[in-house]
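Chain A, query sequence.
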Amino acid sequence: MNLVPLNFHEHASVRLRPHVPEIPHFVEITGGEFPAAAAICPIFFAKNPETGAFYAGALFGFKPGEVLFGGPEGAPPPYVPLDRQRTGFYVAGDEIAIDLDNSRFARSGSEGEELFDEDGEPSPALRQIQRMLGQLVRGKQETDAFIARLLELRLIEPVDISLRFDDGENLVLDGLYTISLDALRELDDDEVLKLFRSGHLQWIYLVAGSLTQVGRLAERRNRMLAGAL
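Chain A, predicted structure.
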């Protein structure tokens, strides 16, 4: 990785190539992304292996290297997490940084879109990236606060998922957590009202409801194994 602060004087000639995001089988997402994610895949919580902190993620496949969505010729799935849209771009304090070693960037020639116009102002492509990064930063903060509240109310619980596929393979998904609706029902009315007014109650039901996508994802995997997709 060659991470450097983005500026016009040093990167006026850098262009942004067309980009088809690589989607891992489990991708961190923000609460604002829950509606789009829940429409196609299950949402779980997991622990960061380095810090032990919980984060929310969308499950696109049942094991590393497997993504069960996507159109023809490697097209991305219908929903692409913000964390994958920002590939090559990072937030460093109040600045944007880019990884010049990332294949998304072309340092010369006419391939791709410019990052700056002739006056040194952000191009439409870069303005879109700026908006997306701002959304990602705010969303991360809001999601961390949401998870902290869930932990405070003891609403997060581990979930055991064991699957058997038509080819005879058995898969067990470890280290995943969801929201306990039983624990939610035991909360005082005042606590539930606070969750509702903060918008967190909607997020709770989106996460809980997305568990139905596990079965649909398994069916899709069986169809892929049979060559039906």
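The chain has one domain: 3-225. DSSP finds eight helices and 13 strands in the chain.
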